[in-house]
Amino acid sequence: MADRLFQGIADQIIALIDEGVFPPGTRLPGERELAERFNVSRVTIREAEIALQAVGVIKIKTGSGVYVAERSERNDEALPRVSALELTEARSLFESEAAALAAPVISDAALAKLDELLAAMALDDGDDEASTAIDREFHMVIASASGNAAITHVVRTLWRLRTELPEVRDTHESVCHHDGLTRQDEHGAIVEALRRRDSQGARLAMRQHFNRLLGSMLDATEERAISELKRKAQESRERFLMSAKIG
Questions:
Q1: Which residues, in sequence order, are CB contacts of 58 under 8 Å at separation 6+?
Q2: Domain range spanning residue 100?
Q3: Are 51 and 167 in contact (CB under 8 A)?
């Protein structure tokens, strides 16, 4: 997947921090100044800062500004930079096993909650934020039902990557916005396996859900790559035609 513009800006800011241009503890220049420095929009600067905050490089203080984090503050709570594909592979491994562990011991209350969330998915009006919240709760109910606190913690952390890393969040939204009915069916298959207390079936249903998601992400990646090639080709064509007219 090609890096988005904001990620390139984030990398440049990290380089400036490492070079000492923006030392730890100091306040970064404002959005307008950074936008002019890097010749991008303020929206791109904002996205880069959100990404840097997620991985612990900076701290955004409402009403005060953006500050470079001290190196001692870049602790294990900081999120690693991962791609949506890497995250989905990890989720498939952990959440498939969480479903298998949950199947024999899941409570009737947890099953009822999952049914409630399936009904909410069916009424989804396309609001990405609301859809993500429902999806997260669905998967967290299953992780909690596994009875394994370590797995529950890991799945919760994976969901932080899913929702707090801008590039991962954007990739999911571009794919999930168009697959509502398919996701509902996949989630329904997971719940039915859990209801049967079928560990192998729950594991397989969860794995198939993530395998399909991985395939959709790969398709979207190819489409973006082709679109980018076409854009660059069009720019080259326009430059050539302009040069020919001038000549």
A1: 13, 28, 49, 52, 66, 67, 68, 69
A2: 84-225
A3: yes
Q: Which pTM value belongs to this model?
A: 0.66
pLDDT tens digits, 127-138: 678 888 999 999
Asked if residue 68 lies in contact with residue 17, where contact means CB atoms within 8 angstroms, the answer is yes
Evaluate whether residue 233 is within a structural domain.
no
Cα-Cα end-to-end distance for the chain? 38
Cα(114)–Cα(141) distance, integer angstroms? 7
Residues 67 and 103 in one domain: no
Residue 178 lies in a domain: yes
176-186 b/e with 16+ CB inside 10 Å = b? beeeeeebeeb
For residue 230, the model assigns a pLDDT of 64
Map residue 30 onto helix, strand or coil. Answer: coil
Count Cα atoms within 13 angstroms, Cβ side, for 79: 24
Q: Could you report the per-residue pLDDT of 179-238, keeping only the tens digit for each?
A: 667 888 999 999 999 999 999 999 999 999 999 998 888 876 666 556 556 666 676 666
User: Looking at per-residue confidence, does 55 or 52 come out higher?
Assistant: 52
Q: Give 185's DSSP letter.
A: H
Give the DSSP H/E element, type plus range, for residue 67.
strand 65-68
Residue 96 tokens, joined: 């498939």
Matching residue, tokens 């500050």:
67
> Which amino acid belongs to residue 15?
A
Q: Is 33 in the same domain as 13? A: yes
Cβ neighbours of 138 (radius 10 Å): 21
**Residue 15 sits in the same domain as residue 105:** no
CA 117 to chain centre: 21
